[in-house]
Design brief:
Length: 465
């Protein structure tokens, strides 16, 4: 009689080749794709163990509570100089972590030139560039002023911005207004047609939006985002449903605001033609949500992920406003006709605040049609969402995904889990041409650089002794 009296079933851990050898011999095998934490790196494992503390878990529970409690509401539209804390007449804000003129990528330089022309500080691109090089204008991240902007993210003093208030927790966030597609400032274009459109937005669109919003007494953004996720949006690169819901909510109030019919017609036309209108509102809503975690001692939750076309930047609740940076990644995706990989600038924009808050790329299972824009397949979109559950600490009941039996979106990126699993956050994004003035050339997917999370993990361990 053998030592084992029955049929043998094997559980194989690690290398699948061992499981395959057993299958070839007729054995029943269950393969488990197990890997050691942090890829087996002793230093990272030591840091992870040092952060397996009740105080970190408790801080993260408090952080998740703030995320789920947040109620971002659009309350106004005002000039940046009036609305944004710390804004000055000589200050231009930009996306991503801090960057100087000499290190700015082409699209951001183009957007800065356009902003100088818009402000009337110079009357030619050449003069604008000289002014920007001279040091007369200061550059600071939008994130340092409770603001966000897509792609180049440039906000200059006269630009109108959305004012979004987190009604549950009291903080505010700000974003510029979406220009639509084509040659636009956020992708570095600054021709006369770009400046003309921005002037119309400043002089006609912004006052009309402000009047309608005030007439409405504020517009609930979380509710619009929740409904849009049930209608095929993920509220980053797909905003068709959210923009439509906003228009249906907003237009009756605009008509009651007593503005001329011609203005209402212009605003209605703009909303009907600008599918990405809601992107900037989604970003401001997510910023207002995630800023509520800032300075949460001991927390390993990520509060911001952003890119300036040169560097990727990360912030973590428990390390204050410190930036953890790495080179900006390249985006892999679909190009417009006539463009290719070598034309593309590395990733840029504050719009990855949506992924930070648990939507965008994290909610791609809700928006299978997004793959027609960024590449991949509907099955891959589903898998990306499932993968993000591995690096987050909660599922948001406010944002649910029908295809996953209305499971909440993966929420609360934990630096510890990113390092332990080796899984980096997925981001879906636009692709800008590397030269200023050309604009968007495609869209695709990328990953946050793991180096940022490694730096943040080490710093958090230092903070906690």
């Amino acid at each position: 009689m053998g030592i084992i009296g029955g049929e043998v079933s094997v559980v194989n851990l690690g290398l699948e080749a061992f499981a395959e050898s057993l299958r070839q011999q007729g054995a029943k095998v269950v393969h488990v794709d197990w890997r050691p934490p942090a890829g087996g790196d002793p230093e990272k494992i030591k840091l992870l163990y040092s952060l397996e503390r009740d105080e970190v878990d408790e801080a993260n529970r408090g952080g998740v509570g703030r995320i789920l409690k947040s109620q971002p509401v659009l309350v106004d539209v005002q000039p940046a100089l009036k609305a944004i804390p710390g804004m000055r007449g000589d200050l231009f804000l930009h996306s991503g972590p801090p960057v100087t003129w000499d290190r700015m990528c082409g699209p951001m330089r183009g957007a800065m030139i356009g902003a100088v022309l818009l402000e009337g500080l110079e009357d030619s691109p050449e003069g604008a560039e000289r002014r920007l090089r001279s040091g007369d204008i200061s550059f600071e991240p939008c994130h340092d002023h409770s603001a966000v902007g897509p792609m180049a993210g440039v906000i200059s003093p006269s630009m109108p911005v959305f004012v979004v208030e987190n009604k549950a927790l009291g903080n505010r966030a700000y974003s510029n207004i979406n220009e639509g597609f084509g040659k636009v400032l956020r992708f570095g274009a600054y021709g006369p047609e770009v400046i003309k459109r921005l002037k119309w937005m400043e002089e006609t669109l912004a006052p009309a939006l402000a009047a309608g919003i005030r007439e409405a007494g504020g517009i609930d953004l979380r509710g619009i985002m929740a409904r849009a996720l049930h209608m095929g949006d993920e509220c980053h690169n797909r905003n068709v449903a959210a923009t439509s819901i906003f228009a249906r909510t907003f237009m009756p109030h605009l008509l009651h605001a007593g503005l001329p019919n011609s203005v209402a017609e212009e605003v209605a036309k703009y909303l009907s033609e600008t599918d990405h209108f809601f992107l900037n509102l989604s970003m401001a809503a997510c910023k207002a949500t995630m800023d509520s975690l800032a300075g949460l001692k001991g927390s390993s939750l990520v509060t911001a992920m952003t890119r300036n076309g040169t560097e990727f930047g990360l912030r973590v609740a428990g390390t204050g406003g410190e930036w953890f940076t790495a080179p900006a990644p390249i985006v892999k995706g679909l190009y417009f006709p006539g463009f290719k990989d070598e034309d593309a600038n590395p990733d840029l924009g504050d719009s990855s605040i949506t992924e930070t808050a648990g939507i965008g790329g994290f909610a791609m299972a809700a928006a299978p049609a997004i793959v027609q824009f960024v590449g991949g397949s509907p099955q891959e979109a589903l898998e990306y969402t499932r993968e993000m559950y591995e690096i987050t600490v909660a599922r948001n009941p406010n944002f649910t995904i029908p295809f996953l039996n209305f499971e909440g979106t993966p929420t609360g990126i934990d630096v510890r889990r990113v390092i332990a699993t080796g899984i980096s956050p997925i981001i879906n994004t636009g692709i800008a041409h590397r030269e200023p003035g050309i604009g968007q050339i495609g869209a695709g997917l990328t990953r946050a650089p793991i180096e940022c999370f490694e730096k943040a993990l080490k710093r958090l361990a230092e903070e906690l002794g």
